[in-house]
Amino acid sequence: MLLHGEPGVGKTSVVSAALDDLEGFLVLRADGVEVETAVAYGALQRLLRPLARDVDEIPEGQRAALGVALGLEEGEPPQLALVGLAVLSALARAGDARPVVCVVDDAHDVDAESLLALGFVARRLAADAVCIVLASRPHEVVDRMLAGVPRIELGGLDDESAAALLQRSVEGRLDATVVDGCVSATGGNPLALREMAAGRKAEQLTATVLGHAPLPIGRRLEQVYTARIRSLPSGTRTWLLIAALESTGSTAVVDETAQAMGVTDDAPAAAEEAGLVTVRDAISFRHPLIRSAVSLQATDSERRRVHRLLGEVATARGRDGIAAWHAAAAAARQDESIAAALAVAADDAGARGGMLSRAQLLTRAGELSPDAAARHEHFVAAAEAAISAGAATLALQMLDRVEVASLDDVGRGRRLIVEAMCGMFLADSDALRAGMARLIEAASLLRGTAPHLARYALLLAVNAATVTEERATGATPADVAVAIRSLPPAQADASGRGDPAAVVLDAVASFVLDPYEDAVPRLRAAVAALDTLHDDEVVRFAFAVTVPSLALWDWEAAARLLKRVVSVGRRRGALREVDGALWILSAVEISRSDPASAAAYIAQSIELRRALGSADDQAVNAALLAWQGTPAVVVDQIAHTLREAGWGGVARMAVAAVAVQDIAEGAAEPAFERLRGLLRQPFLQASFHHYAELVEAAVRSGNRGAGEEAARALGRYASASGSAVAAGLHERARALLADDVAVAERHFLASLAALDRPGHLGDRSRTRLLYGEWLRRQRRRAEAAVQLHEALRGLTTVGAERFAARARRELEAGGVRVVAPADAASPELTAQESEVARLAARGATNGEIGAALFISANTVDYHLRKVFRKLGISSRRQLADRMNR
């Protein structure tokens, strides 16, 4: 739960009340402190200290990721989602012993990584004895990072309660008119009401209200506190300033700094007597506004002096990140040594996976660097860190500060890469369409001094080409291919292994520029290179999979490679890349006539986005909508909108899907026109697989010449690629075009044999449907019924409902009564339940399932019990049997 409201409205009081009388609970608390906002996972480290034993018992991969994030171990920078899963596992394990309540007040002062991790955990809690309560002032960043977390907006007290509080706080009785005026002016803010009455008699408050004097609300409260602070002795004011700027509440650090400034030991007493702070094991300000007032009443030079001394104390204690933060706050002018210290702290944050903290530190390093080249290099690096964390708006803000003239060619190239990636992240129409051209320009700047980065830019350019297609501006796929061939040869690594990026790019360039027959060996080499990627490389190539595999008519290779991206990405917590791979998998399944599998991948994507807090931000798969029965006019409208926004690839798939549905319903002429338009510009999406659809539409619409031409093209691709699927589709085309009965039947049977491959049930069933229809026209009704029954079964399985309806109509036209199978109305499982059931049926443990789906083992057990109840089973063995059926 996120509790948010204005300063003084009572968030801390409400949270404290909620924590009263929690006997038997474990309460973990880590309030936000300003000094740690740039310390990646700082709040999380404080929160988890009591759970050391539970952390030791979570799965090794999660424990290692958490250790690196908290700076306790060395290792690869962990993905934030994996850190979040580790925290979830530790809290769930602790909750098995006794209920756990995690409290974070002043969440607006929590470092970004801790806040994101806690948001991730909060969204995944389901069946665990764990509660997370966060309190924050209204804050746009907090709202974004905790998207999807239930929230309560805490407003002022109701009029009756506010009046009672005011009357109780003032000495004497107040006139009802005065009470009403105070309540109205403060909006029922309890702190404002208390401070208004503090130390005043009823007559004094009445005079203040009737004299229209300013009342203490928000900033005015700070002014009230400022006046109170100024009445304190000089030493006490200095001590308060040290405590306010130190902000963590450490008595040892404040005392050491106070001694360095000559403040006497009795200085805190007056602050406590004034009711501004309490000093026990830690220093606690009565309210955050007091901390702000203390800082505001000091001069700039006083604040800088305190920050400088706090930085020296932090350095002596080995807290270099905190020291760099204080040194930056103490800086009155640009200082290269401080900028360098911030850059080191940024490297440390990045090494622990804290890319947002890295961006923040590098930005400040840029501001403090007197050297123009170094300054703008820091800004570019900050933008790279921000985009790697998915913060595209922040990355663009960093780029706006860069003076391009101050950068060398490598810096300019890196800047262009980030700019293009921001266009993709933000779906900005103009930037999205210009992305390919920008990436080609980046590669030209980088190829001489940073060829590895140039290859990365061109991999992104290939992805941009498939995304925007004909909507791209300033460049074409041929330009990408020419840029690829202008790169210097890639060097082999120490083991003699070539650069897989270079192999993939070489294949793409050949596919675009060379005769197809010449490109095939390079395409095969690319698929082989992708198959042999190390786990630490797989995720980086998620978007490079489809072009070489589909260009070879090898949907199974595409699915295999993308499933590996999903598996490795889930294991490593790279959930944004997993989300992208799931969406591409859905497109792959659509293109081989399996909308049911496509829908399952989209459902997984939606569940994943819910974990990331972006469930409302859906990339529409309009092609799937067409297969699921959405009217063509609606899909066309969606496709038009997507195309105009720059998403040419998604729009193309939607148009093709509508054409296929037209074929299913016998509307051959519009299908033919749609497909012919697509195939005038076959593209990197490997649109040529629509030649098979075009043949069917052409034959049915009386465009035989176009059908024969498409069949010949299909045959050339099948022969050159060696693909059994391409051969099966070609055989189907030849069967449709054959005039001789024996020849047609031979081709139908050859098509069925070739398409009898894993993953192509939809394609095979469509051939059976055509063969069954042909047999019925030959008056071979019994044989036709066999093929049509098999077609109906397969088409129903893959969710191709319009084709299945056509098979039913054919059967009924042949005098066969179609009866739905008895188990057709099996209970529907949610996406999460389906995934849990699938993994459990394969023998995965609850812990393994939880790690794969980023939920706790308790939540897995909860879902499994629901699955068992829905399916009417009681064991995993029964589940495996049911899932196999």
TrEMBL record:
<dbReference type="InterPro" id="IPR036388">
    <property type="entry name" value="WH-like_DNA-bd_sf"/>
</dbReference>
<dbReference type="Pfam" id="PF00196">
    <property type="entry name" value="GerE"/>
</dbReference>
<dbReference type="Pfam" id="PF13191">
    <property type="entry name" value="AAA_16"/>
</dbReference>
<dbReference type="InterPro" id="IPR041664">
    <property type="entry name" value="AAA_16"/>
</dbReference>
<keyword id="KW-0547">Nucleotide-binding</keyword>
<feature type="domain" description="HTH luxR-type">
    <location>
        <begin position="822"/>
        <end position="885"/>
    </location>
</feature>
<dbReference type="InterPro" id="IPR000792">
    <property type="entry name" value="Tscrpt_reg_LuxR_C"/>
</dbReference>
<keyword id="KW-0067">ATP-binding</keyword>
<protein>
    <submittedName>
        <fullName>LuxR family transcriptional regulator</fullName>
    </submittedName>
</protein>
<dbReference type="InterPro" id="IPR027417">
    <property type="entry name" value="P-loop_NTPase"/>
</dbReference>
<dbReference type="InterPro" id="IPR016032">
    <property type="entry name" value="Sig_transdc_resp-reg_C-effctor"/>
</dbReference>
